[in-house]
Each structure stands twice: as structure tokens, then as C-alpha cells.
Design a protein that fits this description.
The chain is α/β, with parallel strands linked by helices. The chain is 34% helix and 16% strand. It has 2 domains: 68-136, Orthogonal Bundle (434 Repressor (Amino-terminal Domain)), CATH 1.10.260; 137-263, no CATH class. The chain contains 11 helices and 9 strands.
């Protein structure tokens, strides 16, 4: 067999670079797959996910109940409202930004450890009553995208079972940069939505947040506590739920078994 001539790389008229093309680089991470023989139609299918362990009876192929794993959907809306950018959230749970984006768009999965860390970071927990995953909070959320904010509000308020209100100090000046809306669902720890003054979405809050009660003057001391708590909660991805949990503990007697309307 004739050996092809060897051409020195310095003599070629193209630049030496990575072999992968752009579409190959952007491929989603590989997912586990397995073959499954369908006894009903006699065909064999290639399915994604982990192969079930052990033998399955015929009845097992049609489970009476299967939980709805909506973690990615909930996480996507939370990340859109999280004070910190997605890149910081990804780094906190030990994945790349692209891996996080693929998971949130439901085009790829995360390994068990990263998935657990993400759920814990975002306060996502399984609700047996609802048969799915829900945001348990409490949170500081930033009003950026109307659809994501509405979806999270519906989840944490039980489809609008709350009396949300914008907090302003009864005396003194309000924060010149941010507006603070208290989400006070019945008997649950409060969540605070921050909206930057002057942005279009801030003016739409009464329409986006169901049962919006309007502006509520509160004591300057309480207002300062809200502002400083939100500032601390925004420092790192981990600080969000931690700081708001401490805030909820300080005022637990006000919101337990009721819809809290602070004075």
C-alpha cells in the first residue's frame, strides 16, 4: 500500500485547531440508555434513563401510580428569579453552566449528587399530597421574567391563596432602588419579591401577583429588617434560603396559622 505523503503542518494554508466542530461541542451530555422489549407490540425500543433492576412482572409494566418528576421545571423558574446568576448557581452545585442549562431545559439529566445539591440549594422538595416537587422556600426572588415569577408565585401561594402586599416604611424614605413585596401565603414562611424601581415589570406587579393587596406601611424597624435580610440573601446562592429561614423564625408567631399582614 502506498504511503500518503507527509505534509509539514507549517506548509498548509489552513490554521491548526480543535477537531470538533461547533455543533459537536454543543451536544448535550450523554445519557444512559437501554433496550426494552415490548411484549404488546413485539418491538424492541431504545429508551433513555437507567435500566430497571430485577425482573418485572406484567403488572409492573403498568404501575398504578407514578410520581411526576417536575424538578427541572420548578428549578428553571426559580433560577430565573434567583438573585444570583445561573453561572454562580451551577458552580455552587459542582456543574458547568451548560450542564445546568441542559437540565433546566429538560434535554439532559444531572448526576444524583448534583441533582440533590441543586434541589437542596433551591429549596425544592417532594410534596406527597401533590404528587410532585414544589418550591418550599422561603425565598428572596427578583422580578425579572413575568412568566417565571407567576409560576413560582402560584406554587408557593397555593394558586393565589395569599394577600401579598408591597412594604413601605410608615415613617422615613423607602429604598430608592428596590420595591419589596411580601408573599404571605396562609400558614407558610414568607417570601419577598424584589422589583427594581423603574423597570416595566415593577409596574406590572399588581397584575402579575394574584390577590395583590397594594401598598402597606410598616414600622421602620421591620422595613429595615426586610431590606437588610434581602441584601444578605442576595450575596451568594446558598445565602438565599438560609437568610430567609432565619427571617421567618424571627416572625414565626405572626404568620403561623394565618396570612400575615405586618404592621
Amino acid at each position: 500500500m502506498r504511503t500518503p505523503p507527509s505534509i509539514p503542518l507549517e506548509d498548509v494554508d489552513w490554521e491548526v485547531g480543535p477537531w470538533l466542530s461547533s455543533w459537536e461541542i454543543s451536544l448535550p451530555p450523554d445519557r444512559p440508555r437501554y433496550f426494552h422489549h415490548d411484549n404488546l407490540c413485539g418491538r424492541t425500543w431504545l429508551l433513555s434513563g437507567e435500566e430497571p433492576l430485577g425482573d418485572m412482572d406484567d403488572d409492573d409494566e403498568f404501575p398504578a401510580y407514578e410520581e411526576h418528576d417536575n424538578t427541572a421545571e420548578i428549578a428553571k423558574n426559580l433560577v430565573a428569579c434567583w438573585p444570583n446568576p445561573p453561572k454562580e448557581i451551577a458552580a455552587t452545585v459542582g456543574v458547568t453552566l451548560r450542564q445546568l442549562q441542559w437540565f433546566l431545559s429538560e434535554r439532559s439529566s444531572l448526576d444524583r449528587t448534583a441533582r440533590y445539591d441543586l434541589s437542596r440549594l433551591l429549596g425544592v422538595a417532594y410534596d406527597e399530597r401533590m404528587g410532585g416537587y414544589t418550591p418550599s422556600g422561603p425565598y428572596v426572588l427578583i422580578a425579572r421574567k413575568a412568566q417565571a415569577l407567576d409560576a413560582i408565585y402560584q406554587e408557593i401561594s397555593g394558586a393565589g391563596d395569599a394577600c401579598p402586599c408591597e412594604l413601605v416604611p410608615a415613617q422615613g424614605e423607602a429604598d430608592p432602588s428596590w420595591r419589596y413585596v411580601l408573599i404571605n401565603a396562609y400558614g407558610t414562611p414568607p417570601t419577598v419579591v424584589m422589583a427594581r424601581r423603574g423597570e416595566a415589570i415593577a409596574e406590572r406587579l399588581p397584575d402579575l401577583i394574584m390577590n395583590y393587596e397594594g401598598i402597606r406601611p410598616v414600622s421602620p424597624t421591620f422595613y429595615r429588617d426586610v431590606v437588610t435580610t434581602c441584601a444578605r440573601a442576595c450575596q451568594t446562592p446558598q445565602a438565599n434560603v438560609r437568610e430567609m429561614t432565619e427571617f421567618a423564625k424571627r416572625y414565626e408567631r405572626h404568620w403561623i396559622d394565618c396570612a400575615w399582614l405586618p404592621d
